[in-house]
Every structure is written in structure tokens, then in C-alpha cells.
Amino acid sequence: MDQKDKPCKQDAGAFQPVIDRNRCEGKADCVTVCPYQVFTVGTLPVEQRSGLSFLGRIKGRAHRWQQAFTPNAEACHACGLCVKACPESAITLVRTAVA
Ligand code: SF4
Q1: pLDDT tens for residues 28-82?
Q2: Of the chain's two ends, which shows fewer C-beta atoms within 10 Å, N or C?
Q3: The domain over range 21-95 is classified in CATH as 3.30.70.20
Q4: Minimum CA distance residue for ligand 1 atom 6
Q5: What is the distance in A from the centroid of ligand 1 to the CA of 83?
Q6: Atom 4 of ligand 1, residue of closest alpha carbon
Q7: Which 3 state secondary structure label does DSSP give 4?
Q8: What CA–CA distance (Å, rounded) separates 32 from 46?
Q9: CB-based burial of residue 95 (10 Å sphere; 0-12 exposed, 13-18 middle, 19+ buried)?
């Protein structure tokens, strides 16, 4: 396959999605759109809630602390679909240290 025909922009592991805990509302659009099963949605652990902003804590309670997680982050190919799909603009792609 020619480089121009590749569906994703980067080899796996060059970038990873980072989730803004003050923005995520666990709507799971990222879970649906990601072709590499990078995301799951689960409950934000109690120990991670204290670092949220005031608004982040209000949003967290309102959405029963459901947020996106990236248990398969190393599979990310940086296609950007999750960034576009997130209705809360909570996802950023960040270059990994090893890439
Ligand atoms: S950029 Fe693409 S491959 Fe990476 S997590 Fe988002 S949807 Fe998945």
C-alpha cells in the first residue's frame, strides 16, 4: 500500500490521545468512532476527582463520574477521528516520548 493510501497518518504509538478530565462527560463518541478500540468509558476514580476544577466537579457529578479512558492508547494511529467526534472538545493528540 502506498503511503498516500494509508487510512491513518502515523504508525501506532507515535501519538496518544489525552483526555481533559474537566471536559469529558463520558458520552462515548470516541469509543464509537475509534477504529483501533483505544477507548472505554468508566467511572473516574475518587482519587482523581479532587484535582478537577469547580466546573469539572459539577459536570462529573451530573454525569455520574462517567469518563473516557484509554486502556489501548498505544494502538492510536493519530487519525484524529476522536478529536473531531468529541462533543466536549476533551481530546488532544500528544506525541509520545518514545516516538
Ligand atoms: S486519533 Fe484515531 S486511532 Fe487515535 S485514539 Fe483517536 S480515533 Fe483512535
Answers
A1: 999 999 999 999 999 999 999 999 999 999 999 999 999 999 999 999 999 999 9
A2: N
A3: yes
A4: 82
A5: 8
A6: 76
A7: helix
A8: 26
A9: exposed
